[in-house]
Amino acid sequence: MSVEQQAALGSGADFWSTKQVGDLPSLVLTDGPHGVRRQVGATDHLGLAGSEPATCFPPAVGLGQSWDADLTRKVGAALGVESRALGVDVLLGPGINIKRDPRCGRNFEYYSEDPHLSGRLAASWVQGLQSTGVGASLKHFAANNTEHDRMRSSSDIAPRPLREIYLRAFQYVVQQAQPWTVMCSYNRVNGTYASENRWLLTEVLRDEWCFDGVVVSDWGAVQDRVKAVAAGLDLEMPGSGGGTDRQVVDAVAAGELDAEAVARTAGRMIALAAKAQAGRATQIPAFDPDTHHALARQVAAHCVVLLKNDPVEQQAVLPLDAGHSLAVIGEFARTPRYQGGGSSHVNPTRLDIPLGEIHAMAGDGADVTYMPGFTTDGSGDAAALREEAVRAAAAAETAVLFLGLAAHQESEGFDREQIELPAEQLELLADVVRAQPRTAVVLSHGGVLRLAPVESLVPALLDGALLGQAGGGALADVLFGRVNPSARLTETVPVRIQDTPAYLDFPGEHSHVGYGEGLFVGYRWYDARAIDPTFPFGHGLSYTSFAYANLELTAETDGIAATVTVTNTGARPGREVVQFYVAKPDSSVARPPQELKGHAVVDLAPGASERVSILIDRADLAYWDIRGERWVVEGGDYEVRAAASSRDIRTSATVEVTGDAFALPLTLNSTLGEVMAAPGAAELLGTLMLMPQTAADNEALGIDMAKMMVSIPVCRLLSFAGGQVTLADLEKLLTQLNTGRS
Ligand code: GLC
What we know:
The protein is an alpha/beta fold.
């Protein structure tokens, strides 16, 4: 293959496909993470032009709330079937960026504020999709946590949060699910564009994580194709019409770009084409829209979080009783908000309308009234709409109020300024609850909302997030108890925006956004700062109840085996999401008070118990050591907490783990304290008269000399030794100590 042909392979033929070179076929790549957006006419990367009908599954904000990896695998496989039916070779998903700040416009397309949960769910999605012969594109690599200035802004992140939070889920998915492609993000990472960040695309992704697929750019993310190829980018999308191919060829000819780098890129594109060709031949079921719609409804029902369900006059508001008169209020009951705006936007094969599904579920003879209550575009007479809705609520036995954000209020491409529900909706809520205490609220939104004003007023509250085309049916299933809600929050709901971790940094300025909260993103922040949220990470109720007992921990070579007994103590079958958080309060490094390191989903009949077992991976106990530039598992005790949410710890136990044999070599720059910690150091230091004063001396001086000296680098002690000790003496001592420790 000539260098011209090699260069041609590395840039698209048009908006959605790669070039056909020689007998290498052109491949089709297209969005998105919760539905296939296949454009056969006009093309765009913001979901503006039309696309072929496809099933719109719950976007990640909803799907993530299921906490169910088996479900995400099924969704991935279903999307693969539809991708194949629409001639797509690579589906551009999943999106796994961390929900760092609730105002990020794209959070609807991401799973969680936690990397462990994001990684587990995304890996299963990738495995499901790729089992059908369609490749995934893990995105957006990396640290694309704001939409503001997203094509220029530098995410400025210290090494530990970068590794332990923002890269961690990518690492897990790459190593566990081997996505065919990884999509580099628009933004810069610590000053260098992701598309030309060699540390990111080659040293970390390939050399450390052993990724062997194709790195594709986000659409329009390549700033400099020659630098990008040198850094490890393989495919520029969309195509540049040959212009940048020429730049690559010229750079090789001028000796400015290694021909090997171009050949490597071509080799990876050839390997991708081979995977796609094999994929096209994989036998899979035909796409049946009704089957996928039914799956979308089953999935969506597991994505609805029951946030609150307090009894009114000793009777729970939910589930609804079909025999009771019902007032359904809110525009979203008639015009559902079921997906986000931008590149992930799907043209659904059909759309469930919540009001219609409620009528169907309540039955023909049921007394169900409807009032819009408000408009989502500021039109209409707000007072009149509110009054007629309040009258309907007062006249019924129960009211269900659909509230949330309209599509124009949040989307890819811009961030929100605040996290409030619209004022007219809050006003309506207060009047409706005053007229009808038996009111349940159903929320539709992509990014987190401030719910304190809602939680304080309403006895029953469901978080529907965004549920896809079958969300209307799924909500009816949950409202009437046909499905017992089991979903859990994957993002903390703050009392106020000022409590949030990135509040002072977000969204950045002058094309830089600092990650000042470091490791302490999401619940890590609220736990460390002892800030109470309105609803905590992992929170979700059920129409039944569960008890936990007999937590047992065993230290294994590959991690900690944890087993706990969970019992359904209520009268309905239900599903519990058992969460395992790990704490190491005596850690030698800064750590969040606790971190999610495992979870399991268990279905239980009333009265039934099950021993739920998981393995907490040893790798998940590690911290990133910036001195040795490696992962380190500390030895000692680890506390494991079995919980129903990050703030509902049911039982805990402690287990001892053997740490990694990791000791940095002692150098002249090691402190006296670090040297003193080495076996035999005290004697050796004593011979050099470098020991801190004795206790008696301290007594006489009224100070603790040792405490004052431990942080002095040993080479500086020479300044105080009056020539009694030479550099050679010190180096000899350090050699002895290092030898003794190795
Ligand atoms: C968009 C998005 C990316 C999408 C791509 C193609 O700008 O950032 O997620 O896959 O372009 O539409």
